[in-house]
Design brief:
- With 244 residues, the protein is of the alpha/beta class.
- The radius of gyration is 34 Å and the shape is globular.
- 35% of the residues lie in helices and 23% in strands.
- Helix 3 (90-101) packs parallel to helix 4 and helix 5 packs antiparallel against helix 6.
- The chain is built from 7 helices and 10 strands.
Length: 244
């Protein structure tokens, strides 16, 4: 089962985003999907710096989705203790994700403006990372995320899901903003791990017990006398292992 962790933050001193709608649409799409039993979604809002790693420790996700604001080199925008914004720096984010890569983290989607810088840093250890190379509109961000998870829920690959989700933004003329970064070495390790986990041990066949062929003995001739009028000869065939 793939565990998806959605982390969101919209501090009160930043422009409002429709994050609840994004999370709801993703969740409903996965519930309708053919492979819904293969995904488990957990969503955490108003995320602060220490919440970030706490939620990761709790869920141990294969996929992390961040939705909120991004400010390029400054980092992703989280909340502080009183709800104002603070930055999760790129170096800190990359170092943290490197640790969780060893615990099965496969894919990160940073659905935030100007998050390509963080995506590039994260991709040093994570197989698949998606970021935005420009500011992206709220409607486009939601449309992209929903299409991406709808496609994963249909059993398709991350690459296919990304391509199909991008196509949904053509009408909004924002299809060039999402970028997918791949780490060939990390993908090879992931595929090897998946192959080993799927490998089944073929049970040894227990030989079936074969019954010995019926052993027929020599025919025994018995001479029986019936009075003085003659002899009657009866032939009896005795067979081992036969019950009468």
């Amino acid at each position: 089962m793939k565990r998806i962790l959605i982390l969101s933050a919209n501090p009160k001193d930043t422009s409002p985003l429709r994050l609840d709608e994004e999370i709801r649409e993703i969740e409903e799409g996965l519930k309708r999907s053919h492979h819904r039993d293969q995904f488990e979604l957990t969503a955490k809002g108003a995320v602060r710096l220490h919440d970030f790693y706490r939620h990761m420790l709790e869920v141990q996700p294969q996929i992390i989705h961040f939705c909120g604001h991004g400010h390029g080199e400054q980092g992703l925008v989280l909340e502080d203790e009183v709800g104002h914004y603070q930055f999760l720096q790129t170096e800190q984010l990359a170092a943290m994700f490197k640790l969780f890569a060893a615990k099965g983290l496969e894919c990160v989607l940073l659905n935030a403006c100007y998050s390509e810088a963080q995506a590039t840093a994260i991709n040093q250890s994570i197989p698949y990372v998606i970021g935005m190379n420009q500011a992206i509109g709220d409607k486009a961000a939601i449309k992209f995320a929903v299409a991406f998870y709808d496609t994963l829920g249909a059993g398709e690959s991350v690459t296919f899901a990304f391509d199909l989700a991008k196509i949904q933004l053509m009408g909004l003329q924002e299809d060039l903003k999402p970028v997918l970064l791949t780490n060939t070495e990390a993908i090879a390790k992931l595929n090897k791990s998946d192959s080993e986990s799927d490998r089944k041990i073929t049970p040894q066949k227990i030989p079936t017990e074969t019954k010995p062929e019926t052993d027929r003995k020599n025919t025994v001739t018995i001479e029986m006398k019936t009075g003085d009028h003659g002899k009657q000869i009866a032939y009896i065939e005795r067979v081992e292992n036969m019950t009468f």
